[in-house]
Every structure is written in C-alpha cells, then in structure tokens.
Amino acid sequence: MATNRVSSGINGLDELIEGGFPEGNNVLITGSPGTGKSIVGLQFIVSGALNGEPGIYLTVEEGRNGIISQAKQFGWDLERLEKEKKIVLNNIEEYDIDSILDTLEKEVKRLNAKRVVVDSLSMMGLFARDLDQVTKVVKRKDLLHISGRELTRTQIVGMLRKLCALGTTNLIISEGQEPADKIAEFAADSVIRVQMKPVGKELHRLITVEKMRGTKIDALPHKFDFTSNGIKIVE
Ligand SMILES: Nc1ncnc2c1ncn2[C@@H]1O[C@H](COP(=O)(O)OP(=O)(O)O)[C@@H](O)[C@H]1O
Ligand SMILES: [Mg+2]
Predict the structure, then answer these.
(1) pTM of the full predicted structure?
(2) DSSP readout, 176-229?
(3) Quick check: CB of 29 below 6 Å from ligand 1?
(4) Separation of 41 CA from ligand 2 center, angstroms?
(5) pLDDT tens digits along 51-81
(6) What is the atom index within ligand 1 of the atom nearest the CA of 41?
(7) Closest CA relative to residue 156, chosen from 180, 189, 191
(8) For residue 232, what is the enclosing H or E element?
C-alpha cells in the first residue's frame, strides 16, 4: 500500500522525500540553537493550517509572544489562524509529561488536528521530574526553574508511542546535545538535521534528511535560505 504523504510546507524539501512526510510519522528535527528548527516547525503548522489540516504547536520555550512575532516576519498571522480554529499555540499548564500528552490528545480531537509540533524534547525533559519535587512547588513559574531529569529511554519511547497514537503527523524538535536526544534519534521514524556552516566569509545553512521510514530519500545536505515567506531549499 502506498504511504500517504504530508507536505512539509518547506519549498524544495518534499522533493527529497518522495512528496512529503509519511502520514502519522514522528519526525525528529535536530540541530544546535539558532539553526532554524522552530521556524521549520512553524512553517509545517502554518502551511497545513492554510491547506485544511489544522495543527497544534506545543511549547513553553519562547512563550507565545516570541513565536507570534517570529512568525510575523514570514507573513504568518498566528493569532488570526487561532481565531479561525486552524491552529492552537498550546500553553502548557500541566506538571508532568503524561498530563501534557493527555491534554494534547483532547486538543487534537477538539481541533481535528492533523499536525503536531513538540518544541522541544528538552522542554518535555523539564516535566520529567520526580513528583515529590513537584508537590513542593507552589507556583508554575517556580516549577520551570527546577531542573528536570534527563528523559529515560522508556519515557522517550512511551512519548513517541503516544504521539503516534494521536494519528497526527508529528515534528519533534531536539537540540541533539543530550543523551536523551540520541535515544530519540533511534526511536523516531524520521530524522532531519539542520546545521550552520561557515564557508569562506559566508554562513551556509544546511538541511539533511538522515532517515525516513519507508522512503527513498536524498540524504545529501541541501542549502536553504530564509525568504519573506519562510524557509526555502536553494541547492
Ligand atoms: N528572516 C530571517 N533571515 C535570516 N535569518 C533568520 C531569519 N529569521 C530567523 N533567522 C535565523 O533563524 C534563527 C532562529 O531560528 P529558530 O527556528 O528559532 O532556531 P532554533 O529553533 O533552531 O533555535 C535566528 O537565530 C536567525 O539566525
Ligand atoms: Mg527553537
């Protein structure tokens, strides 16, 4: 049976992966800070929303306003898309991973979402702490100041399985620096790496599809640029 493909929304990327992400895949986007992972995630959600596939963007990292203004420079009006019930910028209000995922499941049903972005894996790690530590915390804002635990293999596999059970196509963002990030690379269906590389006096931004289940991929690094309407692969 042919796999249904979900467009990445990134100009030039679908051509490298037989037309898009396999529907229902967990796709890991990995790269150092500032490489463009969150923008890739936003572009995936926005392009879906504009094409009849609602999406949920789950984060605490930059906060709502940061994401909204980041999106504006590419002409993406997240607040309007939210009003039109095409996207949800999820404000996490739970204290542990299981409750976050339970809420996500309800939101997916409410919105009939087809796409989910988890920004990021280290953010989920913040919520992987011992429950007795949590009960000592009075305010949520304090909670974010206690360090989380490194996600265990079991937690990562469990989380990916729950995400898969949603039936949505999911992008999970990872900084790739912690042991947990390496485990996630093995456990995810697909891995895409974004990098910055100085070449002479220029900075090249590269995107590489490292693996994708059931897909003949072009696994070479490709150069991408930021344009007024998002990321575009140029070479
Ligand atoms: N319009 C733009 N033109 C050039 N570079 C940009 C533009 N918008 C964002 N960037 C670059 O993208 C980076 C932020 O991307 P982001 O997706 O937030 O990175 P990450 O999530 O990987 O940390 C910025 O540090 C900046 O270098
Ligand atoms: Mg980011």
Answers:
(1) 0.93
(2) S-SHHHHHHHHHSSEEEEEEEEEETTEEEEEEEEEEETT-----S-EEEEEETT
(3) no
(4) 9
(5) 999 999 998 755 788 899 999 999 999 999 9
(6) 17
(7) 180
(8) strand 230-233
